[in-house]
Amino acid sequence: MLTLQDIQSLMSRLDEWSLEGSAISKVFMFKDFKEALEFVNKVGEIAERMKHHPDFIISGGSVKLSLSTHSEGGLTKKDFEVAEEIGKL
Fold this sequence. Notes:
alpha+beta; Gyrase A, domain 2
């Protein structure tokens, strides 16, 4: 698991992600549900390739993504690596 100092340093590299307890999260907005679902599928491809899966909440045209390493009970470097890949979409 990462220290708070490590987390703060890695957060500075992410655009518009926030720290929520033991996870990092971001809300992505789309024009409709179809676009939101297409985004979720693209994120799913990244998650499968990197073998690290986020939690999703889909509501209309918005998608809230949360990343945490459940097996570690908090944040690891892998969460930030996945967030950076998602940021490239």
